[in-house]
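Progress report, Aim 2. The chain analyzed during this reporting quarter is listed below.
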Amino acid sequence: MTHSSPQNPDLPALTERKVYWQAEPTGDLSACVAGQVEMFRDLHEMRIYLSMTYPDTAFELVEVTEDTWQGFYDQGVFFDDWS
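Predicted structure tokens for the chain:
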């Protein structure tokens, strides 16, 4: 899915993607980014990484918990390589 800026329609459309993340016992966060597991100190660091690495993409950060991981796994979201 893509969307354009209503304030400036001349800007390129942004691709929308979900990033699934979870809190690790170490206090760090792990996230599934383009089919790869990436580690971050906190959500701020993750947002900076995503915006610098994928500047044409708007991200929705989705927390994975003990109660939700099986459903996400069954949907295949952890295997999406964004191709």
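The mean pLDDT is 90. Strands lie at 2-3, 14-23, 29-33, 36-40, 57-63. These observations will guide the mutagenesis work planned for the next reporting period.
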